[in-house]
Design a protein that fits this description.
The protein contains 13 helices and no strands. By secondary structure, it is mainly alpha-helical.
Length: 356
């Protein structure tokens, strides 16, 4: 039961955003300092978590869902309050920018990550919560593309969210932002065609998602003003760019082999980068155990397994995001690791083939 407590650490972020709004000045930067300075330092000091613990009894399952579901009202209330406050125009430009970025990072690292966990669940409540969180950052289509597209095509040329070897973040972002939208549209179009749904049917997410987003943006713009609307849209952009930056990190340079049949090999833990940094995984609900997530997407965050024989990142996601923003440093750190991993994998496959 006590294992769930560290996963409530993420709630520090919205609290720090509120503190930044109330105190202003340098306090507006506290959420960013926590994410991009303190967490990487704590990762180094606290070390790795490579233990695979026994699974919790079924009667304790609700405990691990509690922080996920509690986050939904916390994010919605915090976002509404911050947007309304910033829309008053009482903050300096520097404070406005810092708080918009801080809110975006909070809703990206916290909200999108939790939505990602919930959209893989079967319960309608969980999937509805995922849609609400993704709508609040203007990235609703991720609920379609990620589950039906990315998980099927990961580590292949068909997946826009899988970054290629030698591809910089600047080149990757436009490709994945456009590609994920196109993929979601095609996937939903095909689903609706199979179910014979009209284009104006609210069950068609190509119609429902834009309709809800337009209604929310109009309501904010008309009631709180254009500045509040700009903050709301801006935090969403920060959030989903952070999401796609993490996607860039998670699969950089890794590829599934095409079989003689023309199909790709099955997705295995080796097709995602793994990170065992303990503190980052507490904040990210074990998202960094990404190898196991792609191997078995239905496995809940607290049950994800650590693998030793998969590609390992040299740091947690927060530090890797900073690295990805500087392409020469990223290539210097990651390219040798990709080459070494692919060479070792190719050597192992050749050995197995010769034995067979």
């Amino acid at each position: 039961m006590f294992r769930v407590i560290p996963y409530f650490l993420m709630f520090m972020l919205p609290a720090m955003v509120v503190l930044g709004v109330e105190l202003g000045g340098v306090w507006t930067l506290t959420p960013l300092v926590l994410v991009f300075v303190m967490i990487p330092v704590l990762d180094v000091l606290v070390g790795l978590d490579t233990e695979n613990r026994p699974e919790q009894a079924a009667r304790h399952r609700w405990l691990f869902d509690l922080p996920l579901l509690l986050w939904v009202p916390v994010q919605l209330v915090t976002t509404a309050w911050v947007v309304a406050r910033l829309g008053t125009g009482e903050f300096s430009l520097g404070e406005l920018v810092a708080l918009t970025i801080a809110l975006g990072v909070t809703n990206g690292a916290g909200g999108i990550n939790i939505a990602h966990e919930l959209m893989h669940r079967k319960a309608r409540l969980h999937r509805a919560a995922a849609e609400i969180l993704m709508t609040s950052v203007h990235y609703s289509h991720f609920c379609v593309e990620h589950v039906l597209g990315h998980h099927r095509h990961v580590a292949t040329e068909q997946d826009s969210a899988s970054s290629r070897f030698g591809e910089s973040l600047v080149r990757y972002l436009p490709r994945t932002l456009v590609g994920s939208l196109r993929s979601a549209w095609r996937l939903e179009r095909d689903r609706c065609a199979r179910q014979n749904l009209a284009w104006y049917d609210l069950r068609d997410r190509r119609f429902r998602y834009p309709l809800v987003l337009i209604a929310i943006d109009l309501a904010i713009g008309l009631t709180l003003g254009p500045l509040a609307l700009a903050v709301f849209v801006g935090q969403g952009v920060i959030a989903f760019v952070l999401l796609e930056t993490i996607n860039y990190i998670e699969h950089y340079g890794l590829a599934r082999q095409r079989l003689a049949s023309g199909n790709y090999e099955r997705v295995r833990p080796q097709h995602s980068w793994n990170s065992a940094h303990r503190v980052s995984n507490w904040y990210l609900f074990n998202l960094q155990r990404h190898s196991d997530h792609h191997y078995l997407a239905s496995r809940e965050y607290d049950r994800l397994r650590h693998y030793e024989d998969v590609p390992q990142l040299p740091a947690g996601y927060a530090a890797m995001v900073i690295l990805a923003l500087v392409p020469p440093l990223w290539f210097r750190v990651m390219n040798p690791r990709v080459v070494a991993w692919n060479s070792a994998t190719a050597g192992a496959e050749s050995t197995l083939a010769s034995v067979a």
